[in-house]
């Protein structure tokens, strides 16, 4: 597992400064800007906005057949308009202080023992050692939060009985049957 210092060193050599362009929030293809949201992140956004779950998220679009006519997916995504995340208002994130991990750490992601880098116009810009260390610490916290979420989902999935003919989302808080 990569440590904060090693990640910070890599970030420093790559360089990054957010240009606040909002490109990462815009929809450029069918499944572009899918922002996966864990149950804890969703609860935080709900508390901050007063919005209901169904106003904030939609099921991850890839469903798996359960064999009894039911289908399931294992994630929620922030809702999108035809061209952007629903929280992009006037070119700014309207839930910035409560944004999900994926947004906090973009364009970086830790996958196992590797640092993945997504395309972003802010790459290559100078980054201070303290900013690189802060970003590295956030990446480590994100990785830990996602691992915990995945473990909880696996546990719930083991016990889940997908209702015949229904579509469900299984998250770390249980199984939600979707209407319609």
Explained architecture:
The longest helix is centred in the C-terminal third of the chain and has 31 residues. Helix content is 34%, strand content 19%. A hairpin with a 2-residue loop joins strand 10 and strand 11. By secondary structure, the protein is α+β, with helices and mostly antiparallel strands. The chain is globular and about 55 Å long. The chain has 5 helices and 11 strands. Strands 3-4-10-11 form a 4-stranded mixed β-sheet, with helices on one face.
How far apart are the first and last residues' alpha carbons, in Å? 42 Å
| Main sheet overview | 4 strands, mixed
Q: What oligomeric state best describes the polypeptide chains here?
A: single chain
Query: How do the strands of the widest beta sheet line up side by side?
Result: 3-4-10-11
Rg computed from alpha carbons, rounded to a whole number of angstroms: 18 Å
Helix share bin: 25-40%
Structural class: alpha+beta
Task: Give the H and E element order.
Answer: HEHHEEEEEEHEEHEE
Question: How big a fraction of the residues is strand?
Answer: 15-25%
The overall average pLDDT, rounded, is 94
Shape: globular
Overall strand count: 11
Give me the number of helical elements. 5
Which runs of at least 5 residues are low in confidence (pLDDT < 50)?
none
């Amino acid at each position: 597992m990569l440590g904060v210092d090693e990640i910070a060193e890599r970030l420093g050599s790559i360089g990054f400064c957010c240009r606040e362009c909002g490109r990462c929030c815009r929809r450029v293809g069918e499944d572009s800007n899918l922002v996966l949201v864990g149950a804890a992140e969703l609860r935080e956004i709900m508390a901050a906005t007063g919005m209901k779950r169904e106003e904030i998220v939609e099921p991850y679009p890839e469903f798996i057949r359960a064999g009894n006519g039911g289908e399931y997916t294992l994630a929620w995504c922030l809702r999108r308009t035809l061209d952007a995340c629903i929280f992009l208002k006037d070119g700014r994130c309207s839930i910035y202080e409560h944004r999900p991990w994926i947004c906090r750490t973009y364009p970086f992601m830790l996958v196992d023992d590797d640092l993945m880098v997504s395309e972003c116009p802010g790459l290559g810009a100078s980054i201070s050692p303290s900013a690189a260390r802060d970003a590295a610490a956030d990446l480590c916290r994100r990785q830990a939060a996602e691992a915990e979420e995945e473990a909880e989902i696996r546990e719930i999935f083991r016990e889940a009985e997908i209702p015949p003919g229904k579509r469900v989302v299984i998250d770390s808080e249980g199984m939600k049957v979707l209407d319609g």
